Amino acid sequence: MSESHENLRSSSYFWPAEWHPHDATWISWPHNPKTWPGRMEPIPDAFERFIRTLAEVEPVHVLAGPAEAAREAHKRLDGAKNVRLFDFATNDCWVRDYGPTFVIESETGKVVGVHWVYTAWGGKYPPFDEDAKNGARICEAMGIPRVASPLVCEGGGLETDGEGTLLTTTSCLQSASRNPERSPAWITQHLSEMLGVTKVIWLEGTELDGDDTDGHIDQLARFVAPGRVVVAARGIEVDTNIESLQSMKQQLSEVTDARGRKLELIDLPTPPPRWINGQRVPESYCNFYIANGIVLVPTFQHRPSDERAIGILKEQFPYHRIVPLDAADMIWGLGAFHCGSQQQPRCAREEMGVRSEESASFNPYAAG
Length: 368
What we know:
- This protein has ten helices and 20 strands.
- The chain is of the alpha/beta class.
- The protein has a four-stranded mixed sheet with strand order 1-11-10-9, with helices on both faces.
């Protein structure tokens, strides 16, 4: 069963939902062949499409990586409109997990970067020393204040509605490979202090087959509006993910959010199982990314399920343009567009929890 915690101590920070207007999106240029063993060749093209698509609607900041990768990134992207490259070394491309989580300081409205401890998903993929430094590098480059957290945490394990509710999983943050000496109560309170959330909903026993993150929430359940969540659901009758996905939905049906609302749950069926080199790949349409005025949706070259997912997300984001983008090669690295991006929100023009007219246009479901 899930656990939820509320009445947490107050925080000076506010973590806006992903649909809050962005100043920029951060992406890391791919270069590690171990991430896509035997299938590296199409990946730079896939990331270039990803970057150029986002650059049509907002600035994109790209970590160019080590020397050879940086040369390729500059060759492809120098001169691209709305794209800025940073010559920071990286070990891998999953900036969602090692980049800072950007929050807004309630009193000043200024953006602050929360820099978690990064250990490559519990030490699974060394070396990760350069990636672990990039939260600090990003904040320094942008002149953004940084708060260093002692919590081992990845950004893909956190999901918010922008109104004080946090979704996460026990299998990530409470795992022995990440925070063995931290009690659940301490982790919950620390998340509240770092992110300004007032209720943390912990989900248990939820993980897609083939996933190497120990159950990141951004593959499983995503807010599409306050009080409304799309949940990964079985796409066919026989699938090894069925039990965990049904359990997740049941847990979500039993909780309320920070404002006391029962969650409205919308099924987002997963594609049929697919294997590459004998390994199941964790394909999920929940790995979409919300940018300024668009929602970038991963597709997996299975037309019936791709079209169904696109239709569902069109219904959930009537004020955004839905942009399908092929992720069939990218997913061999066990992540898609949300895993490969990190939003930097625009400075707030209003008090915490009260949206400006501009922000409200990106969240038409917000109550006044």
